[in-house]
Amino acid sequence: MCRADKQSTTGTDIPVVSRADDAGPCKAVGSAQGPPAESDIAPNQSVGVAPARGPLRLLRIPSLLLVAVIAVILLCRCDDIKMRVKSGTPPPTPGASVVRVLLTSPAAREVEVSTTGAYWLKVDGKVVAQSVSSMPAVTVRYRGGTWQIGSRVVRGREALLLPASDSMVYLGGRCYRGSLRLLADKGDSFLAINHVEMESYLAGVLPKELYANWAPATYEALAVAARTFATYHCSTTGKRHQYDLGDNQASQCYGGYSAETPKSRAAVEATRGVVLSHGPRGQERIFLAQYSACCGGRVNGAYVIRNANRIEPLEGGQVCNDCRACSRYRWPAVRVSKSDILRALAARYASARKLTRIDRIKVISAAPHGRAVWVDVVGNGESVRVRAEDIRLSLIYAGIPAARGLNSMNCRMVDLGDSIEFADGRGFGHGVGLCQWGAQGKALKGWTAEQILLFYYPGATLYRVN
Ligand SMILES: [Zn+2]
């Protein structure tokens, strides 16, 4: 479950593309190796930004001089936009106006689709069916290079179900805005990818990430963080892939239109287009604004989960006691056998296969607050260096039952001979960036979304993407 129980993922390497119909190789989500370094996409260059305004007053204006400077910059930018419009070309394309969300992981072999109203069905760009009425539920299969869509059989690689603007598409029992792209994968399997406008996408993310009764300020803060997270992927790794994000904990949980609530729509609208950025004035860049369920009392730096330039908003170290209401703020010790740890690591990392046993786990580096960052797993005269977080992720992916209670690596590893005890456990997830439970605790104390964001991402600037 995603809702405020976001498991840690290094979140990264999640593929994206800025256009719906681009083609390219697919890539799995949730790599433990982390994403590339901070985005090279300057929000005021590639995605077009303007200072955030509106009901939240998310951008603080420190001085009249700054106002004047920004005004000049904006005037120049507005001129550019006007020129483009006057010339008949579209306005600057936002970096992430359309998000491509993978809905099938692993790839599907059969799905059921339908629409709520008028639609077009294309295969390899050619219209093969259209109707002013809704499409009844039909089964889709892909066999030997041919799509079987209900009774219709069409040869091709890519099917696009494009509802009219007042219509939506169903995949299984879940309804989505935007279009549904079905893309042949390996063998007779295929991917289902929802192409959806960014703000609508976010309205389907927030209810899957937060509890329904949580405060509007929590929703608004996460809307900005999630928009930044998605924009980052759309602007970086997604450029090389067929989809930008998955729909689960490996990226951001997303439930489409079916998940939307009035509260999620309101939070998205109140923060429309606002993203986090960092850097010298005029050179700000969107960064990977990760977040997790509960930091356990201290925010972690991004370096605990991935390689990246260390920047102030993701340096961590903040004391966060507002997540105490989370049931996993503290959790009981967990014992996992060394053989299970070895099995999990070997399944995930080829380098770990040279180990035939684990003698000890040696902490090589730790965060200032003591949390292990890098460890050496030592056995049979060999040693493998991994992030402490990778031990936890490996155990999760391997489905080791004894590791179910290992909610984070904010803990102490105690060698008990045949097993490792993870003691003094705190928090749930990787603890990097915004702490969802902590944000809610702060919102209950009256903090605004802006205050919450600038606490968890200190030094960040809020921008409104056009
Ligand atoms: Zn916290």
Task: Write structural notes for this entry.
The chain has helices at residues 43-47, 64-86, 198-203, 206-209, 216-235, 256-259, 262-270, 338-348, 388-398, 436-444, 449-456, and strands spanning 49-51, 98-102, 110-115, 119-123, 126-131, 138-143, 146-149, 152-155, 158-163, 169-171, 174-176, 179-184, 190-197, 274-278, 285-286, 291-292, 330-331, 334-337, 360-366, 372-379, 382-387, 412-415, 419-423, 425-426, 434-435, 461-465. It is an alpha+beta fold and 466 residues long. Residues 7-51 and 53-96 have low confidence and may be disordered. Among the domains are: 108-188, no CATH class; 330-426, no CATH class. Helix 5 (216-235) packs across helix 7, helix 5 (216-235) packs antiparallel against helix 10 and helix 5 (216-235) crosses helix 11. It starts with 42 loop residues before the first helix and ends with a strand. Residues 294-295, 320, 323, 435, 437-438 line the site of zinc ion.
What does the average pLDDT come to?
A: 83
Unreliable residue stretches: 7-51, 53-96
Please tell me how large the radius of gyration is.
23 Å
Separation, N- and C-terminal Cα atoms? 33 Å
Strand content: 25-35%
Helix content: 10-25%
